[in-house]
């Protein structure tokens, strides 16, 4: 019976990822939202803030949310509330664009920006229960297959979504109704995906400690200082995200070296195909607890993409930049989540997820700063800066043997909390019969996690 539950939950999680990925294609920041807002006459500043706002509002609230939910044994009810909020926000946006032709362009743009903000914030709040529930219902040995299935099938459907976008925008449907249909298609697909995850049967988890907000903020620095694996994981991921600061400018650089605009379609196809193949290829090593290796390959591919962007002068070879960039992002995207699950203790998983995502919101905004620097610096300079950050992240990953050991340990089946408690009590009784009680001071000095030495 338990195996059937895992299979059912696994399938629902995959369906969630597939439909949400396909739906997101209709809300693409640069390919759909930006052209729509630009046609309405919206300020370029507002248009440029859309992708940054979606990232920031998703990641920043997660630490506070994680602290609030840490003591809850079941977190799926909170996902259901936030996913419904996301669906309603995009539905309201779709209806206003579809039937608001008599409204002023400024009002329509304001509604779109507000609904995107609400959707991103609700997504960030729901991201904590999503990650925690996924860690509980998908065995660590199947996480590679889980993410690969979501990304590969979702990527294929997203290609279909892109084809629908082109058909609608090339049709006789007038603006802005044409975009209203696109937003409605995306809302329906995302709603199906969110509903699928809401039907997962979540087992009870280990409750963590609920702390007052100020107490939690005081606790976090000490946690990062004492948990060396967490600290180095955060540092590595922070630098790795900074390495991507110039990635949005690959297409612009390709045009600068003579690529025709039609070649951008070739680059998109190359990147999409590479991501699908890479996600499938990374599935097996990830399932075997080799996520650190997958992450290292990902960083290596990102570095190769940056190096090629610096060296390639013939636009016919520039597709290799997008190929290696897609492979790198696929590897990092697969391994980073799995390693975070391995690092986080079960009873503090929500806090670890919230902490990591809130901290990583800062480097995720690096492309915004890069856009401002482009005015002062040539693009090759940005590629060089990205190379430096990527090399630093890769070097740190090569010294994280402890992280690999935690990933391997996560593959071992764990007894239920009740069985673990009985085993721990039996062990304590056995030890007390042959050894004197430990000194309180010595017990307090015991490290919080075994095997987290700073040795690499």
Description:
- With 456 residues, this protein is mainly α.
- The protein has 2 domains: 1-210, Up-down Bundle (Growth Hormone, Chain: A), CATH 1.20.1250; 214-413, Growth Hormone, Chain: A (Up-down Bundle).
- The protein has 20 helices and no strands.
- α3 packs parallel to α6 (105-137).
- It is globular and about 55 Å long.
Structural class, by secondary structure, is mainly alpha
> Into which percent range does the helicity of residues fall?
over 70%
Question: What distance separates the N and C termini?
Answer: 42 Å
- Number of DSSP strand runs: 0
Strand content: under 5%
Question: What is the number of helices?
Answer: 20
Spell out the helices and strands N to C: HHHHHHHHHHHHHHHHHHHH
Rounded to the nearest angstrom, the radius of gyration is 23 Å
Which stretches are poorly predicted, pLDDT < 50 over at least 5 residues?
Answer: 415-423, 433-456
In brief:
This protein is mainly alpha-helical and 456 residues long. It has helices at 2-24, 29-39, 44-59, 62-69, 76-99, 105-137, 143-170, 177-198, 213-226, 228-242, 250-256, 263-287, 291-311, 319-343, 349-364, 366-373, 379-397, 401-409, 417-432, 440-445.
Layout of secondary structure:
Elements: H1 2-24, H2 29-39, H3 44-59, H4 62-69, H5 76-99, H6 105-137, H7 143-170, H8 177-198, H9 213-226, H10 228-242, H11 250-256, H12 263-287, H13 291-311, H14 319-343, H15 349-364, H16 366-373, H17 379-397, H18 401-409, H19 417-432, H20 440-445
Helix pairs in contact: 1-7, 1-8, 2-3, 3-6, 3-15, 4-6, 4-15, 5-6, 5-8, 6-15, 7-8, 7-12, 10-15, 10-17, 12-14, 13-14, 13-17, 14-18
